[in-house]
Structures are given as C-alpha cells and as structure tokens.
Design goal:
Helix 2 crosses helix 3. The N and C termini lie far apart (48 Å). The chain folds into 2 domains: 109 residues, Rna Polymerase Sigma Factor, Chain: A; 64 residues. The protein contains 10 helices and no strands. With 192 residues, it is mainly alpha-helical. The mean pLDDT is 81.
C-alpha cells in the first residue's frame, strides 16, 4: 500500500488529486468514524464531520493559509474533533469528557471560527447536489473548475465544437444552480 508524506497530501489536495483524496478517506475516515461513534454519533454524523473537515482544510490549502505544526493526520483529527464538539453543543448533547482516539492540537481561533461558519454547511450542500448531476455534467464542471479551456473540454468530452462545450457547461451550471435553489435546506443562506 502506498503512503504519502504530509507535503504530498497537502499538494495532492491542492490539485484535487483523486489518488490523494481516496488515500485521505481510506487512512483517516476510520479514525474520525470511531471518534464520532464513541461520542454519541452515528456513521452518517461521521461522514458529515469528515467531509466538512476536509472542506475546511481544502479551503485553507487553496487560500495558502495552511501551516502544519503537526502531522496531517493530527491536524485532520483536530479539525474534525472541533467540528464534532460544536455539533454536540448545538444538539445540547454536551459530554463531560470526549473519548479521544488520537492526539490532537489546539487550533487557532480563525480556524475555530471557520469551522463554525455556515459556509461549510452550504459548501457541503452544494457538493451533495453536484454529485446528483449526470456524470458528463460533473466531468464538464470539474474540468472547468480546473481552468481547462472550453476547446480542450470539448476535445476531452468528444464534442464537435467549442461552442457546444460552452453551451453544455452553461446548461450543467444552470442545472446545479436550480437544484441548489430548490433545496429548502439552502434557503436560509440566500434569504439573509
């Protein structure tokens, strides 16, 4: 089995490498699942917490604000641990003491604020809707988000013209926007 250094993981996440994302899920999700399960949570809670933690870390990486002072594993665990504590607090399910399964670090206040922001929740909902799009739409939008030109997207997708690639990208983007707008869970983010 391949193991990656912390630097390789951070760079892989920056580049949205499927190999690195799969590695992170395979290596670190079981730890987070165990933490959440041992502290009054379900498997679904663990998936949400892990995904939210990954979103926060990805945002830090892409904003060039991530400086690891521990191993990536410890950092990931610390972020997810804080997320879970906040969720327990919201549920009024405060535990006297959380059962830790890993070492953790105290996170800076800016990360704690980011963890509690609604932006993470919105991002997760957007991702949920993104995954309901057709495979073609997902592929087109992923390529577009990676700054691949419309001409190249057309070539990759087997479209005859760049104009058709542009039209398909527009249609996929509009479909995603519609699904988000129609989701009652997203309304609170747009009605402020």
């Amino acid at each position: 089995m391949i193991h990656y250094s912390d630097e390789a993981i951070v760079e892989g996440l920056r580049l949205r490498s499927d190999y690195i994302i799969n590695f992170v899920y395979r290596e670190y999700f079981p730890i987070i699942k165990y933490l959440v399960n041992e502290n009054s949570g379900s498997d679904e809670d663990a998936e949400d917490i892990f995904q939210d933690g990954l979103i926060i870390i990805y945002k830090k990486i892409t904003d060039n604000q991530l400086t690891l002072t521990s191993s990536f594993k410890t950092y990931m665990y610390s972020v997810c641990r804080n997320l879970w504590l906040q969720k327990l607090n919201k549920r009024k399910n405060v535990l006297d003491k959380i059962s830790d399964v890993e070492d953790y670090i105290d996170l800076p206040n800016d990360i704690k604020h980011e963890i509690s922001s609604q932006e993470v929740e919105l991002h997760r909902l957007v991702q949920i809707h993104f995954l309901t799009l057709s495979e073609d739409c997902q592929k087109i939008l992923r390529l577009f988000m990676k700054d691949v030109s419309l001409r190249e997207i057309g070539n990759i997708m087997g479209f005859k013209t760049e104009k058709y690639a542009k039209t398909r990208k527009y249609m996929c983007k509009e479909e995603l926007k519609k699904r988000i707008a129609d989701d009652p869970r997203c309304q609170k983010f747009f009605n402020n």
